Amino acid sequence: MSCRFRPCIDLHEGKVKQIVGGSLRDDGPGPKENFVSEKSPAWFAEKFREDGLTGGHVIMLGKGNESAAEDALHAWPGGMQIGGGIRAENAARWLEAGASHVIVTSALFDAQGKFLQNALDDLGREVGKDGLVIDLSCRRTEDGWRVAMNRWQTLTELSVSSETLDNLLPYCDEFLIHAADVEGLCGGVDADLVSFLGGWGKCPVTYAGGAATMADVELVASAGRGNVDVTVGSALDLFGGKGIYYAELAAMSRADR
Fold first, then answer.
1. Which residues share a beta bridge with 80?
2. Contact 92, 41 (CB under 8 A)
3. CATH number of the domain located at residue range(s) 8-256 in this protein
4. How confident is the model over 36-64, as pLDDT tens digits?
5. Residues in CB range of 180: below 8 A, 6 or more apart
6. Element (H, E) at 12
7. Cα distance from N-terminal residue to C-terminal residue, the chain
8. Domain extent listing, the chain
9. Which of 196, 192, 215, 217 is nearest to 205 (CA)?
10. What is the DSSP string of 74-128?
11. What is the C-alpha separation between 4 and 220, in angstroms, rounded?
């Protein structure tokens, strides 16, 4: 059993970076960086286009990344999703710029983490179900997982459960779920979370977080029952890692199509 590889372009201060999950904060020291590329965001997008890799995502980590994100989308129009600071007021603009979908998390909650149904309704009117990916990136708690917003700094009231996925499914085309506790650490995936997502399996779901070797990718494929796609960041040789080879993932995705 295999899984589809979804490439990522994480942008911070206009550059392609790999950052340890949860280390990017509004105040205090800067984030812990695993990798900073000298190549442009457009270079990565063009590579993904050449290899026919669709459904990846461009994530703007904070302000000052809009121009870099636009460059990436223009290099692979319709081939990548966009997230980071997306809300109803600007969502349509990003689809017009070339994104296949917009990705949202924080816009769906108030400052205390309470879910805002009206915000989801507004986004739906702007981009429709087919243009929306809901990001349910989360942290593990005593009773499962809870969605984390504000660059994973704030836990919300929303659990990652079958009920939550079922309730949100009518509004979106896919889910994107980072396991924030292991993101960027290259210490292994959250197999329990992957297994849960694979057992639900009602729409495309992309998992990210912790993959360090091809064994971890294979674990996502098996535990996810072929229903969970995978994103690989810091361990990927394309981003300075040593555990997973981009060419192997690209070949796996071609074989899976």
1. 56
2. no
3. 3.20.20.70
4. 899 999 999 999 999 999 999 999 988 89
5. 21, 22, 137, 138, 139, 148, 152, 209
6. strand 8-12
7. 13
8. 8-256
9. 196
10. HHSTTTEEEESS--HHHHHHHHHTT-S-EEESGGGB-TT--B-HHHHHHHHHHH-
11. 10
CA distance 151 to 31: 11
Residue 165 is which amino acid? L
Please give the structure tokens belonging to residue 132. 């929306």
Cα three-residue angle 76-80-85, rounded to 5 degrees:
120
Name the 3-class secondary structure at 162. helix
188: which residues sit within 8 A by CB, 6+ positions away? 182, 210, 211, 212, 216
One-letter amino acid at 211 equals A
Amino acid (1-letter code) at residue 66: E
* Residue for token pair 């064994």: 215
* Residue pair 58/77 in contact by the 8 Å Cβ criterion: no
pTM: 0.93
> Could you tell me which of 247, 190, 199, 246 has the C-alpha nearest to residue 227?
199
Q: What's the order of all strands across the beta sheet hosting 144-149?
A: 138-141, 144-149, 154-159
pLDDT, tens only, 154-166 = 999 999 999 999 9
Q: Are 239 and 210 in contact (CB under 8 A)?
A: no
> How many other CB atoms sit within 10 Å of the CB of residue 115?
16
The strand pairing partners of 144, in sequence order, are: 141
Distance, CA of 120 to chain centre: 18
Q: What is the Cα–Cα distance from 90 to 86, expressed in whole angstroms? A: 6
